[in-house]
Amino acid sequence: MIEFAKKDKLALKLCMGIAAVLSGSISFSMPAIAAQAERGKPINRAWALPSLTLNDLDGKEHSLNDWRGKVIMLNFWATWCGPCQIEIPYFMKYQQNYAGQGLQIIGIGLDEAQKLRNYARTLGINYPILRADPEQHYALLNQWGDPSGVLPFTVIIDREGRLVFKEIGLFDDETFETIVKPLLE
Q1: Digits of tens for pLDDT over the chain (185 positions)?
Q2: Whether 152 contacts 83, CB under 8 Å
Q3: How far from the centroid of its chain's Cα atoms is residue 144's Cα?
Q4: Residues 86, 110, 169, CA angle at the centre, nearest 5°?
Q5: Pick the catalytic residue: 32, 64, 84, 125?
Q6: 87 to each of 91, 112, 126, how far by Cα in Å?
Q7: Rg of the Cα trace of the chain?
């Protein structure tokens, strides 16, 4: 992805994390999952969260359940987000190279439908883009573990529906190699 030295990437992530913690905008638990645990339901499963059902850019309704059994990279993004624009070509490469091994990237666009359509068409995005209702952006991000509302935000779900990783900020090749590729084997 971006060619930062390892120490620069670590410093950037550390600074972002420290700023989020100091501002009180991030917690280390996933609120919707914690609420499920209090009710005695499984706490680490995507399928235990309220159903994620959104329309794609053509208006067709999709549920996260449509991709059960796949390794899912759920990426929350917007056209105005610079780091999101940097990630997308890499996500397209991952989708192209690893779809046959069970990878499914799903973009959750937090933007106006026309802007998302134009951006997806211009780049030729090769994975589904679902659009979230603008009224629900922050609630949706919070539900999936990003109470700060920072974009981009990526959640990795294994084939059994376990939430195995979340990343606020740029998702890089090193993280893909370390977290996602082993799930595809």
Answers
A1: 344 444 344 334 434 443 343 333 333 333 343 333 333 333 467 766 777 899 999 999 999 999 999 999 999 999 999 999 999 999 999 999 999 999 999 999 999 999 999 999 999 999 999 999 888 888 899 989 999 999 999 999 999 999 999 999 999 999 999 999 999 98
A2: yes
A3: 9
A4: 40
A5: 84
A6: 6, 19, 14
A7: 16
Catalytic position from the list 32, 81, 106, 168: 81
Cβ atoms of residues 76 and 139 within 8 Å: no
CA distance 17 to 125: 29
Give exposure, 155-168, as e/b (b: 16+ Cβ within 10 Å). bbbbeebebbbebb
Sign of the dihedral defined by the CA atoms of residues 156, 162, 164, 165, in that order: positive
Active site residue 15: no
